[in-house]
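Retry 2 of 3 after timeout on previous attempt. Resubmitting structure tokens to design endpoint.
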């Protein structure tokens, strides 16, 4: 991935990231530097937190709805307390390859999750985060027999995960 631009964030932008992640995920980002990186030919705008790509901006339906969210590396560095969907061992290979999350693979989902919320996908065995996605249904409707319930946005092994700057 080629860098289009890179700059340090202003304190108000840093505050917005920290407040949003704290409110949504229960995560307290404690870092010395925050740099926004815009990439050429990529849908991602990434925030380097102390030099690591731990935050990305996810587009909403309108530009005003674009919001910061943790990358997979960010979720593993700062494990979220909320908006977590946990999958069983059988779903790991599919989710890790970018597949959407299906009901039969889910063993638990946060009840605070509402349809269209951003979520992180966790695996049950080791507690590692595998992907981020957008909920298609409320959290209390995710466990079940059939159907797609989380659309994958970013996963281990994709270009963003492999990004090194």
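Retry 2 succeeded. Sequence:
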């Amino acid at each position: 991935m080629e860098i289009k631009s890179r700059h340090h964030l202003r304190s108000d932008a840093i505050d917005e990231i920290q407040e949003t992640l704290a409110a949504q995920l229960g995560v307290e980002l404690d870092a010395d530097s925050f740099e926004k990186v815009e990439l050429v030919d990529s849908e991602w705008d990434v925030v380097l937190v102390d030099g690591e790509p731990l935050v990305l901006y996810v587009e909403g339906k309108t530009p005003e709805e674009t919001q910061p969210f943790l990358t997979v590396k960010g979720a593993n560095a700062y494990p979220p307390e909320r908006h977590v969907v946990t999958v069983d061992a059988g779903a790991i290979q599919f989710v890790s390859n970018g597949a959407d999350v299906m009901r039969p693979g889910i063993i638990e989902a946060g009840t605070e999750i509402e349809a269209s919320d951003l979520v992180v996908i966790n695996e049950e065995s080791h507690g590692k985060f595998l992907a981020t996605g957008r909920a298609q249904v409320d959290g209390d409707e995710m466990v079940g027999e059939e159907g797609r319930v989380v659309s994958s946005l970013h996963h281990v092994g994709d270009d963003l995960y492999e990004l090194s700057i």
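Attempt log closed. The chain has two domains: 3-77, 84-161.
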